[in-house]
Amino acid sequence: MAQSNKDDHQGAFSAGSEERVTVSSVPISRESRVAVASLRVEAAWLDRLVVAACEMPVASGEAAVVEFLVRALSEIFPECGVGACFVPQPPPSASTPDLHPTEQRLFKYVPEGEERRAVGMDPTRLFPGYQFERVLDVEAGATTLHLASDDPQLEVDGSPMMHVVRRGVLAMSRGLAFARVHARATADARELRALSSHMMQAEKLASLGQLAAGVVHELNNPLTSIVAYTDWLIRKQGPSGDPDSIERLRRIGESSTRILRFTRDLVAYARPSSEVPVLVAIHNVIEQALAFCEHVIAEHGANVERVFADQLPPVRGMPEQLAQVFVNLFTNACHAMPETGGRLGVSSTLAPDGRVVVAVEDNGHGIAGEHLTSIFTPFFTTKGDGRGTGLGLSIVRNIMDNHSAEIRAERSPEGGARFVLMFPSGT
Ligand SMILES: Nc1ncnc2c1ncn2[C@@H]1O[C@H](COP(=O)(O)OP(=O)(O)OP(=O)(O)O)[C@@H](O)[C@H]1O
Ligand SMILES: [Mg+2]
Q1: 156, 187, 218: which is the final residue of a domain?
Q2: Listed residue (114, 121, 148, 120) closest to 134, CA to CA
């Protein structure tokens, strides 16, 4: 009578039990030595199994390990049907298992010419054509090893054949664990390489920033001269001077003063933060950041809309760091904007609990729902070709934390992005 025997004898070597047995933890008593000696296991079987265990292709993944050991066991027992039903385990970090469908894979080997024995309608068996089929758990609920034969030895738990098969199960279980460790280590190494290349890019940008700050600093002296001499020339023209020339000189003076102010602010911004909190009028910081971003805003043809509350209390903080927050937010907004008709909205309100709330929103492509939590993670960027290091918002979050302030990202009503910043009142 054909029968399938789901193996539930969890012996010392059973790999399916929750408490996994490792080779070193298996006690070797005198009795067990005598028992094994009286088993009369063929040395060739054990030799083949030991070689297979040593050569398991753990670097090629779990399925390859299962297939390899099934093949090795089918070579040890050429007259049997040997197979496995393998269900890959979802990665431990997968929060939504549905995204990682666990697809079952079957591996079957039967002696040549006996292929018909491995087909049939019985869903609990891989080899319905054999009289006996043992099913051993390799990993509970996931992978099973199947051995089918017409030999009743298969039904005897203590038989030499089952002795070898159980060791095959143990090898497979360890092989699967090693394959998983290997896959995790490979993924970690890949991530580390990506991080290190991001770090290099960030370092490069930081040194470029220092160079730029140095160059800007050098511009200060000639600019100061231009402003001073323009002023002198205007005064020299006197009240009866040529109005056209005076107007031109006035424009030169105005433009130079603007560049001078900008370069001074930029150098102050690049200077390491003073780390001493002071009372800051948030609108001034926003205006300064908008001035820094004038170029990127103009480049994207964006229209800046300010809706500022009257009479906002000051916040307590480090002005350069706060400017850095808004520079990052304005730059990101500009990068996301459409080519024409870009809108950058900055608004401020006083919350009923006394906090100062600033919202920065744009009408760009917005942030995909699944990215809303990752955007503050260091090195997360959707800007390809090395255009973004992904550090901007993580720095913003750090600065906000330093100020005991909060920031959250959401979708703006127009579909763009909106960042809401909440600062405790400084007074
Ligand atoms: N206003 C925005 N609109 C749409 N997506 C945004 C916006 N702001 C940020 N993002 C998304 O958040 C990601 C992370 O932003 P973050 O400023 O940290 O890095 P980055 O801009 O990509 O690079 P970096 O600022 O270091 O040059 C961006 O790549 C983008 O996908
Ligand atoms: Mg950015």
Answers
A1: 187
A2: 148
Ligand at minimal distance from the CA of 395 is 1
DSSP classification of residue 425 = B
Looking at 93-242, list the stretches that DSSP marks H as alpha helix, in order from N- to C-terminal side.
Answer: 160-237
Within a domain: 262 = no
* CB distance 412 to ligand 1 below 6 Å: no
Residue nearest to atom 28 of ligand 1 (CA): 381
At CA 53, angle to CA 48 and CA 59, rounded to 5? 135
Distance (angstroms) between ligand 1 centre and the Cα of 139 equals: 43
CA 424-366-356 angle, to 5 degrees, is 10
Give the whole-angstrom CA distance, residue 419 versus residue 411: 9
Residue 143 near ligand 1, beta carbon < 6 Å: no
Same domain, 278 and 176: no
CA of 332 to the centre of ligand 1 (A): 5
Residue range 348-376, pLDDT digits in tens = 999 999 999 999 999 999 999 989 989 99
| Band of pLDDT at residue 94, cut at 50, 70 and 90 | very low
Residues 36-73 have pLDDT tens digits of 556 677 889 999 999 999 999 999 999 999 999 999 99
Cα(383)–Cα(331) distance, integer angstroms: 13
Residues of the domain holding 128: 3-187
Query: What is the share, in percent, of the chain residues with pLDDT greater than 90?
Result: 53
Two structure tokens written together for 224: 């100061």
Tokens of 255: 């433009």
Largest separation between any pair of C-alpha atoms in the chain: 124
Residues 22 and 122 in one domain: yes
Q: Is 382 in the pocket of ligand 1 (CB under 6 A)?
A: yes
- Whether 284 maps to a domain, the answer reads yes
CB atoms within 10 A of CB 94: 11
The domain tally of the chain equals 2
